Amino acid sequence: MPESKRQNERLIVMVIIGVIALNYPLLSLFSKAKLILGIPVLYYYLFIVWFIFIGCVAVILEKNKASSVDN
Amino acid sequence: MLQYWVILVVSFSHLGILFAIAYYGDKRADIGRSIISNPYVYTLSIAVYCSAWTFYGSIGRATTTGVGFLPIYLGPTLMAALWWFVLRKIIRIAKVHRLTSIADFIASRYAKDPLIGGIVTIIAVVGILPYISLQLKAVSTSFNVLHTFQSPSQIIPATDSIFSDTALYVALLMAAFSLLFGTRHIDASERHEGMVAAIAFESVVKLAAFLVAGIFICYYLFAGPTELIYDAVKSPELSRLMKLEALTGGYTSWFTLTFLSMMAILFLPRQFHILVVENVNEEHVKTASWLFPLYLLAINIFVLPISLAGLTLFKDGSVDPDTFLLTVPLYANQELIALFVFLGGLSAATGMVIVATIALSTMICNDLVMPVLLRLRSFQQRDLSSVLLAIRRGSILGILLLGYVYFRLIGESYALVTIGLVSFAAAAQFAPAILIGIYWRRASRRGAITGLLAGFAVWTYTLLIPSFAISGWLPASILEPGPFGFEFLQPYQLFGFDMFDPLTHSVFWSMLANVGCLVTVSLFDRQNGMERLQATLFVDVFRHSGTDTRLWSGTATVVELKELVARFVGVSEARKAFSQYAAEHDFNLKTEVQADANLVGFAERKLAGVIGAASARVMISSVAQGEEISIEEVMKILDETSQVIEYSHRLEEKSRELENTTAELRAANKRLKQLDRLKDEFVSTVTHELRTPLTSVRAFSEILRDNPSLALEEQQKFLDIIVKESERLTRLINQVLDLAKIESGNVEWTRECVDLGEVVEEASSSLSQLFHDSSINLKKMVPAESVFVMADKDRLIQVVINLLSNAVKFCEPDTGQVTIRLSTPSGLARVEVEDNGPGIPADEQKRIFEKFHQLKGLRDEKPGGSGLGLTICHRILKYHEGDIWVESKPEAGATFIFELPFAETCISFRERK
Questions:
Q1: Is residue B308 in a domain?
Q2: Domain around B249
Q3: Residue B258: per-residue pLDDT
Q4: What's the CATH number where B786 sits?
Q5: Per the CB < 8 Å rule, is B242 touching A37?
Q6: How does B661-671 read in b/e, with b if 16+ C-beta sit within 10 Å?
Q7: Residue B624, number of CB atoms within 10 A of its CB
Q8: Which chain B residues contact residue A28 at CB under 8 A?
Q9: Which of B741, B776, B810 is the last residue of a domain?
Q10: Which member of A40, A50, A65 has the closest CB to residue B242?
Q11: Quick check: is B842 in a domain?
């Protein structure tokens, strides 16, 4: 059970980080009329952050596949 | 442009495939080999979240607001990360309590109250109508475009009647499919495995169509997405789309959309149904938590390029951006791709409609109509299984027709996304009741009711009514300057709050009202027994899993129960269920007439799966005679049990403390006994030692008295002995007293700066006579500087004298050599007394410091000391925080050494003196 508690804590922290990263003011830093390799900066930021977030959640959850006990 | 019949044939075949999949899925479920019991199908079924809004509306939204289409996918991503404990808790609760819809869930949490169930159902239906109409609009529009597109300037604007007719036919078609998918029979668990399989398939089609269209547009029509974007943003109107400020309402709106979609992904009725009711295995949530956001990411990658492509191609704005996904391929004469896109959109729309209408019809049937019907006496005795089906089918049809009506009234005035967001805001009204309800026991029924009603009222006023006003069905003066001229009641600017866009404004006020009422009323409310029970069961579901609340103390006959159940699930189903129960519980259906509490509970649960928990309770109680154990009694039992448990905990603690104390007492007793024994030994030894010289004194005194004519020489000798023995006795008594004083701590020690050199001097000079008499040489090795310690001078002298006199005792006269050395190794003051006597064997070296321990003297005579001298030295040294020991080898003499800590402060003191 402490294992899943730690998992839960990590997930909550991930969500808080996600909310901060995907909102004002961090978001405003990237809201520019500029293209990098033909793609607007804002899109880069959003999609990359999005992808990384999904990856982190996947790692946090799948790491403990073995110990998924009914708590 | 495609022929009418081509589109129809393809559409029907697609729907036919869906139906076949659903049929197959149900068949497999019946034989127990489910095809949907894996996390990937689960994840794909959740993707029903992506309806025609995602398919068409996102692109339309991107053309006006840049990234403004994205937050409703970021929200679910964030929320999905929390699914593992939030969603899992909800699923567990639903499974344990056999809950079959969101209305059932909320009603069950708040004391199984049918009123709440009804309210939730109404909110759900009203709230989702816009969403359904959105799907109708999308399918009709796409059908129209496909059918009439000739060139950008020649999209025949659909005449009102044709357009609306299309929508009507679409509505009826969807109703037909929903009926076929969801109401072929009544399943007690309200699960529709076939439907889930079909939905999952549709999600694949959606994604494939979008990706194919995207790849085509980016890489075949244009030179690649980067080129496309690069060219597009050369124009200033398009370049502003790269910034977030293109979204009306800016960052506030962004945040609101994220928040709303976080609530919507869980609490839209179709989402709740798929996520919770249709869930097969909790473990699937783990995979879905990251795989579903990945799906969302994939289906959104091409939105920006496609929207820019559309804007580039159709510069004059004559083409509705919501249709770009169709019109761009059509413009390039790629009719096949356009058809594929149409199928994708159709999948997206039908998926949403089917699940939503099935979920809503279940709620209408179980939570709205049935509770009312069951109260009517005339329905109490009839066979109701066909009635149930009829109600459900009727409600599906009704919902779709209502959706069509809403579309006629409102649909043309708004972009797709705007319509959908209104439904999101409605679904968000369920969030407080559920999320707060599963974590806070004190959330009460009345609190939930007021919260829901308040939130719904605000939502209606700030979003629903304005949409009618904007479409012209209500006077526009409601919006501005406000109803009856009251400015502070303007629906888009309540109380003059004008800094938010309409959506954020509505969400803010409705959430405030909802949560505020829920919390405030709950804090002041007192819950009855059922509320408390349900609250505890919900909040503590992970602790109570597996326990059943069997509350029936009454009895019913088996026949009655079976008949009752048969009225709702049909005779054969009821018979099957009861036989299964009998087999599992060793219950002989033939001989037992009375049903025990277990069977009654089983029947209740079976019914609850079909007509909802609240109604089932009513039905069972009408059949079972006798008292239902009142909830109050159950709570009392629970209370008592917990009290007993606490009491026994405390008893355990007390007994543990008692054990500890006993152990301590035993140890103390042992120590006391030991000390007692030591004391006895001491007393006996001392008395013995005292008696010996006394005996001599007495003996010789008697001889002298009895023999007056003894020779003078003899007399002198005897007197000498008497004196010596008396001295010895005195010495012994003094030592004993001294030791006793030291050990009991009654000594007054002086502490002053003492020069060890002086100590050595004084001790040696006081014994000089002794040395001279025994012809033993004393050598002194003392450094020139003073060696200061903080000590009692007299006591130190006593120690040195003792050591020296011991040394004398053990040295040969004439050859005896005693050396006394004073040194300061490593910060300590050290005195050594060395003799060249017989030495002390190793096993004696520690024991000589013990009380009354004596070594045999050199001359093998009785030892001359008391055995306490070294003991006293040891105690003195110990008091001074020093140490004393002996180093010796047999035949090689002995060196007694003691050490004391230095006293640096004394040096300056002395110098001053």
A1: yes
A2: 4-417
A3: 93
A4: 3.30.565.10
A5: no
A6: eeeeeeeeeee
A7: 23
A8: 244, 251
A9: B741
A10: A40
A11: yes
